[in-house]
Amino acid sequence: MDFLQTFGATIADFSRHSIAFVSLENLALMLGAVVVGIVFGVLPGLSATIGIALFTGVTYGMALDKALVVLLGVYIGAIYGGSISAILINIPGTGSAAATCLDGHALALKGEAGTANTLARIASALGTLFGMVLFLFFTPLITRIAIQFTSPEFFWLAIFGILICGSMASPDLPIKGWIAGLLGILMALVGQEDIHGWERFTFGNPNLINGIPFVPMTIAFFGIPEIVKAMKGRGLSVASSVGVRRTPIAPVIRRNLLGILRWGSIGVGIGAVPGVGENIAAWVAYGDARKRHPRGREFGTGVYEGVMAPETANNAAIGGSIIPLVSLGIPGSPPAAMLLAALMIHGIRPGPLLSMENPGIIPQIGALILWGSIFMLVCGLVLTRAMEALLRIPQTILMPIIGVLCVVGVFAYENNPFHLVLVFGFGVFGYFLDRMGYPAAPLILGLILGNMADAFLRRALLLSHGNILGLINRPISFLFFLACALTIANQLGLVQRIKAILTQSRGARDSLNR
Amino acid sequence: MDQTSGTAHDNRSDLHDGDQATQLSMKSLRDKDVLFALCLIVGSASTLVYALHISFEAMKAVNAEFYTAPGFFVLIIAAALLILGSSLLRTALRQGGSLGWLLPRRLVASARTQAFRQTFTAFAYLFLYMVLFWQPVPGWGAPMPFWLNTVLFLGLMMITFARIKPGYIVVISVLTTLAVDGSFRWLLHVPLP
Q1: 20 to 30 Å CA-CA from A100: which of A124, A203, A399, B50?
Q2: Total domains in the fold of chain A
Q3: Structural domain boundaries in chain B
Q4: Between chains, do B129 and A437 touch, taking CB under 8 Å as contact?
Q5: Which residues of A fall within a CB distance of 8 Å from B130?
């Protein structure tokens, strides 16, 4: 009952913020941000994470509410924008649109690119709105639970986030994801530590006392490798977005309303898992749509639901990924990790205390998501033709320009030339890691959560006088520990081995009984 | 009939070529994994020693317990990396990885490939662009102005990698520089060099 009252108050605040948003400055900022986001989403190699990372530096001098308008606008625009290139050139503009390629491009080849684009746009908007509703509903609930968290819970949560992200993000061996996550943690430990003020890995360099900053590192690990890879790329063949055939959209949406709710729930659920994000959500929703569809076998040949499912889920994951960010201080996806960094730059520490320190922030974020999805719908409609033209520009022309933006973005962040040294050094490292199949997402998550894990682990041990059982003697911390252990066991194949042994022993017992 | 079998044969040979290509790239990946795993083992072992060193120093200097010392978590992470590095080395060796590609003859051969040259050039241009943001140009005594540095960087990148007319390169470089300089300096009030 008490909780329903809180939810009612949140909705009332949300309505107030949604109306208060309407000012010329806010509307212009949101419009610009969504357009930039769509451009970042459309261009293969760029992503929501790079877009937010670049604009975090730019919004450094802005007030927090304006910075949030820009960053959320870029986030929403970019996640949708990926679908345009997926449909038109069969190359996902962002990782989250990879599943959209399968049926989206097949529809384009059948002359239904216009229909596919409209479906993707509407599904993205509905997904974003669904994610927003669940964000408003669940964040206060999770915050209430999280307020009871102590050091062990936060330590295990950080470790779980890095482990699960490492397991799911690695394109090659799962341990490569974990190695990337641990390298990220090690990088986070550079600088003066919290408990004793001791300097670690600074080697006498005063620039490293405050640690390695995550905004330049995001550009180093996500931006620089893509720029260098694109220089070796080839031209793309672009399908026309208009197409020949037009199918009425309303009946397709109507018959998939339940599906949209299901894919939206998948998006929010997976988006809320620390570090996993939109990419996985899109694939899981695509798999679900294919399994349940009466013509599931035809998926990949141009089925409307094959476009709608991933687009609903990846946009719903935006709301999902912000739930743990706001309530626990753990980002649900790499772009959400950049949002975390941006909030911290503005002196806001996300976590259970956030809604007490900044009571209006949850409904405010909800209102921004609402306006972002409205602008995305309008801009998507107006800009598809322009994006088609943008896709015809060779990457060898576009990427040097992005290179300039990356360098200027890093420099603008704190006007510190040392950050450029870091970006170049780690950019080279990131390029080779990428070539060897090490994902950047767990590394960045490790960089963000590393210090938190360190401080909470040592505080927990301090409180339990060094007794390691103090890390697992509370129900929630034990559950998180169990989740970490199961993730490791599952990746090492231990779960499968135990299952096989159990099946064998059951078989042997049955044959003995006979 | 002949045509059908011809197509099937082509498909089979395509598949075979594809398999071979995948195997080759997997072999190359595992070769690199061997080197990376060895670096990881050496690096994490050094980090382990460093973690113990700072922990003992802090225990003496600030009377910290071992489990609250600044090197405690570093030690755990370094140990985990050591285990994962060893596991990666074992997997890479089992799947055919080796260090044969580090022989000078093979390194020189791979350095002569177009892909290597392109990668190296792109990084070199980026490096020069970043360095000229704050380092004085030899013989000039001051860092290069932002607009000149950017025009040169864009021009060089496009001359090297893009196949377009020189006139377009000049126009794109100048317009981009004006747009970036204008929007950052005047619109967003971000100071540029």
Answers
A1: A399
A2: 2
A3: 2-105, 113-187
A4: no
A5: 407, 420-421, 423-424
- Nearest 5°: CA angle at B30, between B26 and B32? 120
Residues B144, A509: Cα–Cα separation, whole Å: 80
Rounded Cα distance between A37 and A83, Å, is 12
Q: Min CA distance, B63 vs chain A (Å)?
A: 10
Q: Does the predicted interface ipTM exceed a cut of 0.90?
A: no
Q: Is A401 at the interface with chain B, CB within 8 A? A: yes
Name beta bridge partners: A191.
A200
Whether A259 and A363 map to the same domain: the answer is yes
Neighbours of A2 (CB within 10 A): 7
- Quickly list DSSP for B155-173: HHHHHHH----HHHHHHHH
Last residue of a domain, one of A413, A444, A464: A413
Would residue A448 count as lying in a domain? no
From the list A336, A341, A73, the residue with the least C-alpha distance to A216 is A341
Q: A–B: how many Cβ contacts below 8 A?
A: 159
Domain containing A65 equals 2-164+254-413
Residues of A in contact with B74 (CB under 8 A): 186, 189, 200
Give dist(CA A270, CA A314) in Å, integer.
9
User: Are A513 and A398 contained in the same domain?
Assistant: no
pLDDT attached to residue A69: 94
Q: What count of Cα atoms within 13 Å lies in the side-chain half-sphere of residue A355?
A: 24
Q: Name the residue with tokens 């000049």.
A: B170
